[in-house]
Structure formats: C-alpha cells, structure tokens
C-alpha cells in the first residue's frame, strides 16, 4: 500500500487474511498506515466502487456498492483505497501474492500524516512550517501536531495489524471445546452441571461464593456467553443437543461472528469501545470513574427521551453489558470494586484498541 502524492513517501507491506471482508480490510489498512478511522472511505477498482454504510442513510449512490458483502478477492490485484473525502488521501494497493500464514506488517517506510491536515498539499505545507522555526505558525502547528507525526515503527505496526485480525477469547474457545461433542441441555434450556463446573474451575471469579457453581445462573458471564454464541450461530441446538457449528472450527470466523454482536454506531457499542479503550489507556477504574470518563469523550449527540445522555446513563448501560464483557474476557472484575482490562481486550474490538492507542499517545 502506497500513499499517493505524499513526500516523504509512505508505504506498507502487510500480510492479511485472504478471506478478509472489505470492512475488515479497511480496518487493517487503517492500522497499517496509522490512521484513526475518523472519516469515510471507498475501495475503487476499474469495474466497481465499494463504500461503507453511512449512519442514517438508506440510499446508496448510483456508482457505489455496499462493501459489507464484498471480500478482498472482489478487488482484483490492484485497487485504490480512498480515505477522508475532504482531505483526499488516496492509497494505491497491490495484492502481491501469498504471504506468511500469520498476519502482520512485513515492511514499510514513512510516517503517517496527521489527520485533518489538509491532504497531500496541506501536509507538504505543514512539514515546511515544522521545519522552519522562524515561521509565524511554527509554534502553533508544532503544538497542534503534538506527537502524532511519528516515524514508522515496524514492530508496533505489526502488533496493530495482528490485533485487528484478532484472537478468539480463551473463554470462548474453552466453552466451544467443552461442547465439541454436543451436550444435552437442562429442561430449562441451560447448560448442564458438568459444563458449568468445568467453566467455573477456569473462571473462579465468575462465582465468588467459595463453593462450586451448580447451575448456569450461578455464573452470569457464562449465561451471557452461551446466549451470544447461539445468537451469532457458533452454537446450534438440534434435537435437544447443543453443539458448535462448523464456523466454530475457523478462528477468523469465530472472531468475525463475535464482533458482529457489537452492532456499529449504536449507543451500546460506542460506550463499550470507549470503556475498553479507557481501561487500556489508564488502567483499572471504578465503575463510576469509568462511566464519567466515557461520558466526557462520547460527545453530545446521544439523547434519551429528548434529553442529553448523562454519566449515570453510561453507568447503567455499562452495568447492563458487564456480564458479556466479562464472559468475552474484555474486562476483569475479579476485584468487584474496580474494572480492569481483560486478556482479550486488545484483540477483539478494533475500535477499542484504536481509541486506546490514541488516548495513550495523547495522554488524554
């Protein structure tokens, strides 16, 4: 991937899953360059243009197709990736062939321009101002740029790309393995005691009463996990027996399906990503502290009953999501007084990871 009309030149070579969908490819290209996914984008080929769904818009332009159902193979071996139609960043992308089986960044050079600097022309002007201490705008622009103009770091980029591809949460793989041969549910439709106790042995803090759990309701995160895996069709009930679907054998598909449970541009997903990002950037926080910080950065566009969303609304929404956040290893609440980052927090929700990196870099 090469950024057009930019000097010094900016390029990246990355290994990505051959089965990547275009929304997934978009996230991978963003991570590889160092963009913050703050603007619209398009994939342009000689035969078709693919774009993202715009919240609140139901009509697609005549010359654009929905990227959601498309995959990397639809783009051919060369295509353009357009990002931020105002600044007009145009990337020329080539598919070089089969790479390493592990996704990541192979090579690259050049710093990613700061967002909203005016496109290639504005970036050239910005670099000139930064290079001239006597320019009247020098101090102002240096303050505006801050630490966003960083040299290319292959190791850091490799890590970002791999996190975007994602990993199956250990709790998910554990439950899928326990159900691999199929289990008969209780008359109430819940998991049998053998599965509950096995999960409890691996997640003791899910039931901190000092005795073995007996029923699924004893482990609220397990109940939430059971429900979500059935909703995203990683588990299927057939003739009273619950077993993994074929998709559960493919780690990429497992991650993709779990991520689909977090619907984009909804209040629940927005606060979830920001909560995980805050914990990653700042460390453990009490639920009240976390809600306050999320409320401060979520913006003023969210309302309930015609009234602006409050910090208490955020606190309530996070409490309602806490069972599945724990079940997916996104948060760790072993100490009931605080929420801490869970082992899957950096590798399940790309939006949360991107926010964490931005806030950590800015010291926000």
TrEMBL record:
SUPFAM superfamilies: MM3350-like. Coiled coil: none annotated. Residues 2-159 form the Plasmid pRiA4b Orf3-like domain. InterPro entries: MM3350-like_sf, Plasmid_pRiA4b_Orf3-like. It holds the Pfam family PRiA4_ORF3. This is Plasmid pRiA4b Orf3-like domain-containing protein. It comes from Mycolicibacterium poriferae.
């Amino acid at each position: 991937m090469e950024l057009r009309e930019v000097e010094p030149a900016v390029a990246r070579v990355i290994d990505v899953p051959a089965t990547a969908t275009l929304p997934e490819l978009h996230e991978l290209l963003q991570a590889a360059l160092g963009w913050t996914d703050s603007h619209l984008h398009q994939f342009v080929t000689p035969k078709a243009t693919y774009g993202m769904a715009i919240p609140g818009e139901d009509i697609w332009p005549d010359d654009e197709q929905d990227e959601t159902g498309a995959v990397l193979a639809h783009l051919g071996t060369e295509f353009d990736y357009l990002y931020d139609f105002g600044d007009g960043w145009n990337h020329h992308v080539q598919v070089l062939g089969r790479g390493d089986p592990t996704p990541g960044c192979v090579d690259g050079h050049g710093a990613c321009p700061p967002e909203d600097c005016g496109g290639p022309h504005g970036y050239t002007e910005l670099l000139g101002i930064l290079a001239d201490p006597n320019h009247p705008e020098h101090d102002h622009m240096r303050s505006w740029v801050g630490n966003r103009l960083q040299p290319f770091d292959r190791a850091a980029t490799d890590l970002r790309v791999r996190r975007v591809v994602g990993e199956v949460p250990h709790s998910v793989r554990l439950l899928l393995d326990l159900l691999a041969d199929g289990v008969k549910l209780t008359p109430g439709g819940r998991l049998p005691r053998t599965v509950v106790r096995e999960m409890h042995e691996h997640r003791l803090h899910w039931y901190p009463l000092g005795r073995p759990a007996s029923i699924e309701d004893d482990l609220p995160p397990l109940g939430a996990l059971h429900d979500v895996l059935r909703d995203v069709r990683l588990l299927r009930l057939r003739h009273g027996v619950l077993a993994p679907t074929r998709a559960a054998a493919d780690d990429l598909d497992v991650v993709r399906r779990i991520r689909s449970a977090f619907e984009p541009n909804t209040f629940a997903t927005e606060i979830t990503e920001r909560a995980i990002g805050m914990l990653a950037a700042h460390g453990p926080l009490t639920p009240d502290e976390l809600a306050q910080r999320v409320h401060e950065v979520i913006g003023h566009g969210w309302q309930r009953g015609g009234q602006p969303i409050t910090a208490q609304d955020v606190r309530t929404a996070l409490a309602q999501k806490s069972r599945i956040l724990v079940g997916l290893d996104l948060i760790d609440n072993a100490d009931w007084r605080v929420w801490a980052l869970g082992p899957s927090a950096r590798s399940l929700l790309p939006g949360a990871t991107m926010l964490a990196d931005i806030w950590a870099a800015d010291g926000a």
